[in-house]
Design the sequence.
C-alpha cells in the first residue's frame, strides 16, 4: 500500500540547518517520517516506524549517542514563529489547545509555559518543545475495515480507537475518500488535519461527494452539517467533549452514520471516559475498532460489536 506523505509541505517551515539534512535523506526514508521532534537544549529527533533517531547534519538517521542538531533557543523560536506563520494572533485558537496545524494537515504539538487568563489557557510562551506529526494518506487503508464491517453486518456508527500515533486520522481520511465516492459525506475538521483545506480546497483526496466544515468546533459543525448539508455519513476525529456529545445525541435519529475516533489504550477502557460511555449507551456507535501502533500502525487489532453497551 503506497503512502502519500505531507513531509514536502512541512519542510519549508524549517530553516536550512534542519531542512537541508532532511532533504539529504533517501526519498523513501523521508516519506516514512512520522514525527520531527525538537526539545530545547537537546538534539533533534526524527521518528520512523515508531522509533526515534537522531538526525545528523550530514543527513543520516542514527541511534543515540550520535552527533546531531542541537536545538537552542534561537532555533526553537525560529521554528515556532514559522509554524505560527509569524502571527500568534492568527493561530491563538489552536495554541489554546496546545497545537498548530500547518499546510498539508500536519500538526505541531507545542510544549511550554501556559499563559492563563480567567482560568483558561490563552497562549503558550517560552516554548520548550515542538513535535510535528506528519500527515499522510494511505489510499486503500479503509478497504479491510469496510470488508470486516460488511461481513459482521455492521451498518451503524463506528468508533476508531487506539493510542496516539496509531493511524486513526489516516484511516478516517481514507474512509472519507472511499465512502465519498458514491455517498454524501461530511467531514467536521476542527483541527484542519483530515482534509488539510487550503483556500477552500482539500489537499487530500477525500472523495468526490465529500464536504468539509473546516476549523469549526465539532459541536457546531455537527449541528450545521445535519441541518443544511444532508450527509449520509459524518466523519470527525478525537471525540470526548460534552458539547459534541450533545450534538451527536441530537443527530442520532436523523439516519446519519458516524465514523469517529477517540484515544484509548484498549476497548475495555472506553467506559472510563464518560462522554464516550454516553454515546455508546445511546447507540450512536454500533462497533468499536482498536488500531495498533509501531510496526502495526493502522492495522485492526480488534473489532467489537457494542450493542449499546461497553466492550
Sequence:
Amino acid at each position: 500500500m503506497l503512502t502519500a506523505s505531507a513531509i514536502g509541505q512541512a519542510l519549508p517551515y524549517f530553516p536550512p540547518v534542519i531542512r537541508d539534512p532532511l532533504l539529504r535523506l533517501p526519498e523513501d526514508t523521508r516519506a516514512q517520517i512520522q514525527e520531527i521532534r525538537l526539545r530545547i537544549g537537546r538534539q533533534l529527533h526524527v521518528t520512523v516506524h515508531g522509533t526515534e533517531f537522531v538526525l545528523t547534519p550530514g543527513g543520516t538517521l542514527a541511534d543515540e549517542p550520535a552527533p546531531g542538531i542541537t536545538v537552542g533557543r534561537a532555533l526553537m523560536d525560529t521554528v515556532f514563529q514559522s509554524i505560527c506563520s509569524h502571527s500568534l494572533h492568527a493561530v491563538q485558537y489552536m495554541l489554546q489547545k496546545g497545537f498548530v496545524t500547518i499546510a498539508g494537515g500536519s500538526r505541531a504539538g507545542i510544549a511550554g509555559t501556559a499563559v492563563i487568563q480567567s482560568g483558561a489557557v490563552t497562549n503558550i510562551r517560552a516554548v520548550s518543545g515542538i513535535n510535528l506529526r506528519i500527515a499522510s494518506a494511505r489510499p486503500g487503508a479503509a478497504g479491510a475495515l469496510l470488508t470486516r464491517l460488511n461481513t459482521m453486518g455492521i451498518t451503524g456508527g463506528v468508533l476508531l480507537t487506539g493510542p496516539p500515533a496509531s493511524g486513526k486520522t489516516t484511516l478516517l481520511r481514507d474512509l472519507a475518500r472511499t465512502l465519498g465516492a458514491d455517498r454524501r459525506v461530511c467531514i467536521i475538521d476542527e483541527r484542519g488535519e483530515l482534509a488539510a483545506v487550503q483556500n477552500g480546497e482539500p489537499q487530500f483526496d477525500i472523495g468526490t461527494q465529500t464536504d468539509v466544515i473546516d476549523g469549526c468546533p465539532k459541536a457546531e459543525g455537527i449541528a450545521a452539517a445535519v441541518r443544511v448539508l444532508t450527509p449520509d455519513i459524518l466523519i470527525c476525529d478525537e471525540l470526548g467533549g460534552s458539547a459534541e456529545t450533545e450534538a451527536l445525541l441530537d443527530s442520532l435519529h436523523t439516519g446519519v452514520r458516524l465514523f469517529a475516533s477517540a484515544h484509548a489504550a484498549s476497548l475495555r477502557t472506553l467506559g472510563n471516559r464518560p462522554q464516550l460511555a454516553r454515546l455508546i449507551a445511546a447507540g450512536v456507535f454500533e462497533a468499536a475498532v482498536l488500531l495498533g501502533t509501531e510496526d502495526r500502525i493502522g492495522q485492526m487489532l480488534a473489532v467489537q460489536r457494542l450493542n449499546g453497551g461497553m466492550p
User: Anything to note?
Assistant: The mean pLDDT is 91.
